[in-house]
Structures are given as C-alpha cells and as structure tokens.
Design a protein that fits this description.
The chain is 46% helix and 16% strand. By secondary structure, the chain is an alpha/beta fold. Helix 3 crosses helix 4, helix 6 runs parallel beside helix 10 and helix 9 crosses helix 10. The N and C termini lie far apart (46 Å). The relative contact order is 0.10.
Length: 353
C-alpha cells in the first residue's frame, strides 16, 4: 500500500507524464478514461496514447458501479495486464475513484497515477487515496484506501471547464477554507465565481491541495484528524443519494455545498460556531449554487440515508464532523433526528424553499 502520493503541478503535461513512466513498457500501460474525457482530454497526452491500451467507460456518476468495475478488470485480464502494469486514471472523480479501486484490487494491486481533469477531482477525489464505487443505492459504499503513486495537476484542463464542474469543485475548496483559517476562507469567499480568474484560481487550488495533503499524511486511513475532511459530507451524501433515487443526479460538489449549510447550522447550535461566518458562507453558497428542492416530507428518507453513512459507528446514530470555529474541528459528533431536521429547515430557509 502506498502511504503518500507525489503531487506534481505540471507546466508540460506530456513531458511530465513521460518522465513518470520511464521504465514502463508500452504494452503494460493502460489509460482509463470516460467518453467525455476521451474526446476532450485524451488528445492532450499526445503520442503517449499511441501504444497505450485505452479503457473507455461511460461517463457520469450513474456509471460508478460494479458493472463498470468488472469492465475494467475484464479489459486488464484480456489485454495482458500484469502486476507490472501501470494505469493512468484520466478524468474526473468518478474515474479516479473507480480506477484507483480497480488498480488496487487487480492482481492484488498495480501502480496507478491520477490525472484529474475537473476542479473537484483536483482538490478532492484524486488526492488522498479514497477509491470505490456506488452500491445498493449508496454513495461509495464499496472501496479501499490506497494512494496513487503520483497525481498530476495541470491547469490545461481548467480553461475549458463547464460552470457546473467549476462550482462542484469549488464547494470542496470552501470546505478546506472552513477547516483551515479565516484568511484563506475570506480569500475563497471573495473569489468571483461568475467571472473566474484562472491565475487566482490556480493559487487557491494549490493551497487547497496542500491543506488536504497535510491532513492525509497525518492520518492516511482516517482514524483521527482525517475525519475533519468529512465536514458537509454526511448530509451532502444523503442529498446526493436521494437525488440518484430520483434519477436526476445532484453533482457531488453541489450536494456538499448544501450539506455545509446544514452542518454549519448544527455547528452553530451545538458548538457555538460563529453565526456571522455561518451566514456569510450560506449566502455565498446560495448566490452561486441556487437550491436543491426538498420538502419536509423528504426528511425521513434523508435521515434514513444518513443512518447508512460509512462514518457511523452505530446503526442508530448519525456521525458528523462539525466545527466550533474556523479551523477548529469537533470530531465524532452525533445529532438526533430533531436537530438534523432543524438543520434541513435552516437549509431550506437559506436557499428560499
């Protein structure tokens, strides 16, 4: 098991990937991508793709399932994959999650390199070694923690990101600001997402990655401080799973953004998180992310989804990471059903439902 990834901020994608692949025979190089990334991102690897074996799967979270994992394993098996193979995961979080899991389990583990192509995967999914797929209607229910040998961050992919992808990734950056310090959080909340400056965004990304990487290095298997990164994700994952059942998937980052509103409210009520910060973050999220429509009648189903969250230590209690202040996490919190329903009320009031 690799305990730490080498993170590279690339200025020349082809050259940097070639350097990392020195000594790897062409017949042992596999590139996992989806239909969208194959069209828009794969050409940026240039001649590296000439001899590599391309595994192309469907795009989107609906493809993040056991069937797709089986497709990847089958391709590796039937195309000469060995324990000396290397897999490049080129795409967003769905690809790095599935590719990391498939590589970690094929032949009991082969080397893999993540090349994230979305903001969300750059600052979150591709960093930290969490891999897996959705199962039985639940987000990331099956998976392992195993670090890629390397992660390559390239600004080339940022310039053509659709607005939805930009916003989805930025939600994780907001979370990183909340768990770090007020100076960085203020920088994040003053960034104009309607007219994003790529240079300014690159600086924000670099600091966001640094925050997550330092936490993961301290606690790679999430026994302690790494749980800080779960802020916004208990309610966020419930909203995401709920949306999948409604067959209109909510982007992960949007779900996290809405989860942050609700969980910061719990932080305020339970641990005196500053009200002015709660309101400023909530206003920023409302301005750029709009609303996901839920009603009071949906609360029991959302609560039931939270009861199935992987972070829980009991089948009857919901586990949260909350904050008593910016950069001051409170781990292993539990909140009862009534408090959770109140937090969903606050979310609905905030976004105007």
């Amino acid at each position: 098991m690799t305990l730490k990834s080498n993170i590279h901020f690339s200025q020349n994608l082809c050259s940097d990937v070639s350097t990392l692949l020195q000594g790897v025979s062409p017949e042992q190089l596999f590139i996992l991508t989806d239909t969208n990334s194959a069209k828009h991102c794969l050409p940026l690897l240039g001649t590296l793709t000439n001899n590599a074996k391309i595994i192309e799967v469907s795009n989107g979270d609906s493809a993040k399932n056991l069937h797709t994992i089986e497709q990847i394993w089958t391709f590796l098996c039937t195309n000469g994959g060995t324990r000396h193979s290397v897999m490049l995961n080129l795409g967003g979080g769905v690809i790095t999650d599935m590719g990391g899991f498939a590589a970690s389990t094929f032949k009991r583990g082969i080397r893999f390199i993540n090349i994230p192509t979305t903001l969300l995967s750059m600052v979150d999914a591709a960093i930290g070694g969490k891999t897996g797929f959705n199962f039985n209607g639940l987000k990331n229910e099956i998976g392992v923690i195993n670090q890629p040998s390397d992660v390559i961050i390239s600004a080339e992919f940022l310039r053509t990101l659709p607005k939805t992808e930009l916003l989805s990734g930025y939600a994780e950056i907001i979370k990183h600001g909340l768990i770090s310090n007020n100076t960085y959080l203020n920088t994040i909340l003053n960034f104009d997402l309607a007219n994003p400056d790529v240079k300014g965004l690159q600086d924000i990304i670099r600091e966001s990655i640094d925050i997550k990487s330092k936490i993961v290095e301290q606690d790679p298997t999430e026994k302690g401080v790494r749980k800080t990164l779960n802020l916004g994700h208990t309610i966020g994952h419930a909203l995401e799973s709920f949306s999948l059942k409604k067959e209109k998937a909510l982007p992960h980052g949007y779900a996290v953004a809405y989860g942050l509103i609700a969980e910061l409210y719990l932080s305020y009520k339970m641990y005196k998180f500053p009200k002015e910060t709660l309101l400023s973050v909530s206003r920023y999220i409302k301005e750029y992310y709009g609303a996901y429509n839920i009603g009071c009648d949906d609360y029991p189903e959302l609560f039931n989804l939270m009861l199935h969250d992987k972070k829980n230590t009991s089948a009857t209690e919901v586990n949260f990471t909350l904050l008593s202040g910016v950069g001051i996490p409170v781990l292993n919190c539990t909140a009862d059903q009534n408090a959770i329903f109140q937090s969903l009320d606050f979310y609905r009031d905030t976004v105007g439902l």
